[in-house]
Automatic annotation (TrEMBL), chains A, B:
Principal place of residence: Golgi
EC number: 2.8.2.20
Pfam families in the cross-refs: Sulfotransfer_3
Name this polypeptide is given: Protein-tyrosine sulfotransferase
Similarity remark: Belongs to the protein sulfotransferase family.
Amino acid sequence: MRRHKSYLLLLAIAAFSLFYFYSGKSETKPQTIYSAALLPVKPSLNYDQNSPYIFIGGVPRSGTTLMRAMLDAHPDVRCGEETRVIPRVLGLRSQWRKSEKEWNRLQQAGVTNEVINSAVSSFIMQIMVGHGEPANRLCNKDPFTMKSADYLAELFPKAKFLMMVRDGRATVNSIISRKVTITGFDLNDYRQCMQKWNTAIETMITQCDLVGSRCMKVYYEQLVLHPEAQMRRILEFLDLPFNESVLKHEELIGKDISLSKVERSSDQVVKPVNLDALTKWVGKIPEDVVKDMADIAPMLAKLGYDPNANPPNYGKPDEIVRKKTEDVHKNGETWYKKAVEVVNDPDRVDKPIGP
Amino acid sequence: MRRHKSYLLLLAIAAFSLFYFYSGKSETKPQTIYSAALLPVKPSLNYDQNSPYIFIGGVPRSGTTLMRAMLDAHPDVRCGEETRVIPRVLGLRSQWRKSEKEWNRLQQAGVTNEVINSAVSSFIMQIMVGHGEPANRLCNKDPFTMKSADYLAELFPKAKFLMMVRDGRATVNSIISRKVTITGFDLNDYRQCMQKWNTAIETMITQCDLVGSRCMKVYYEQLVLHPEAQMRRILEFLDLPFNESVLKHEELIGKDISLSKVERSSDQVVKPVNLDALTKWVGKIPEDVVKDMADIAPMLAKLGYDPNANPPNYGKPDEIVRKKTEDVHKNGETWYKKAVEVVNDPDRVDKPIGP
């Protein structure tokens, strides 16, 4: 009833005319005269709900930072650091939606689905636009937004979604060894973490599938092994022209690519795409967990990772990736120094492997 | 560094020109051409951060609904129901602000104070504008926003604040007898509730004082005893012309004043301003609590309520209020029926007192 736009517009015009009429008669003139012009919330915000945003998500430690760094290297795109606040506002709204009692209270107060959507989408847009430089295509990378992909797709009908998928054993090993605190994950318990990974990725895959053709799954291993083929596929999906710079994101760190000194991946994406992170997990997982892997994390097999191969065969890297990995090892000290420069806590940076 | 607006504008223009240049050469043309015009987030939103909003707050059960109903009766003002979501977004932001670690992470990600403010204020404006009819002066009544008055005053530099103050014994008796669930209040413990009231109102008074001349304290008892004098004072403070309709809000219920069927006060503000609620609490508070009142709730004395008088002398009502109270009693059944009509749960409605 409240939501007929043309009716609202007529009402606004009527109210405005009445206001002029009224203010002439009243005892004290109201202090402010509203402009008939439409004022944007933020004058520099020339984006709206119909802008073709890009959302990158996935379980943390699945290559989401690499993905956004490679896209940040594209002249048309800006992703930037994790905003942290976007998934929290989505979480708040999701709480309201889940409680029938609360949802009913909100409807009773005129706080309808549409009103909440306009508030939540304004919040998200202001954060996306404000926390970095302008760009033709704005992109957001907060891993857990993928849990709300279906809702985001409704808020932003032209948005596209990249869901990072990675062998859960590598993800969990990275979470545990890098001490990445994630709500619900017990960093002292490999088995529990694999279960949590399984639940999280299952939810995200469901969300991505609900979004349909606007959500693309990107396998971290394939992105690392075949960056050019994958980036061509990804850019085409995003309706962006291919650009060589996405294959050398390491040259743009600190220039077009802004990194947070406190994000756990900053010291890693400083380096070129390399093979070091693919199989680090092998030999690190307790034997009893390795033995039960197929049961603990059924999503592994569903996503095409052999739960009984340690490691599975991810494929053969492109020649350029092999060379870059060699360079990372040969010039270990140089890359180590660069990595130390971009973080607050040098103790967390991987030591050079050596040639 | 990121926040120079003129610099941003120049950049946007430059980016736009570059984009045109670039899109001519690129392999695939990007699908969307951004308009150089500034698009508002919501086309019907002709309010902005500088609009003179009105915020009504206070401890729940202190007359905030009566206050907003009387203002809603004014032809220039629309408050509407409690939105419930505005205090929650303020709470979220307050959490981030309080944690030094979190705040630092956000700064590192370009999510600066200014960016958060633009997101939070957009959210609040979309809710305020969207959940009711348009009006020259938009008003919000969510009791706990008063805890964030200083921050709201920063977000909205022309906003004004009305803080409802009421004898805490009456407030607590109303919370307990009407079973109003409020986080932290133990409805089975009068003493604990008085302590909670004391803490809550202390915080709010501090906030109101920080806001200074843009926050006015309104004593519930005085509003009920002398509605005309109080409303003249309040409307002058709000730069609004006096209008007789604010003294007969009961005539506009369901017309210009929209009530929620699930709010705890709806069945009360249906009636005209009357004296029934002033001293209902007398005789309801456990004796040991009455005895220790001055120590349990030192804010009572600070606000001018004698903690040892049961009840204190609140003053003598205007003749019109005495008459309206008489009418509410004489026509008890009629008013009871009206009250039952506006709520989902008739069991909660006060039974008629009788003449």
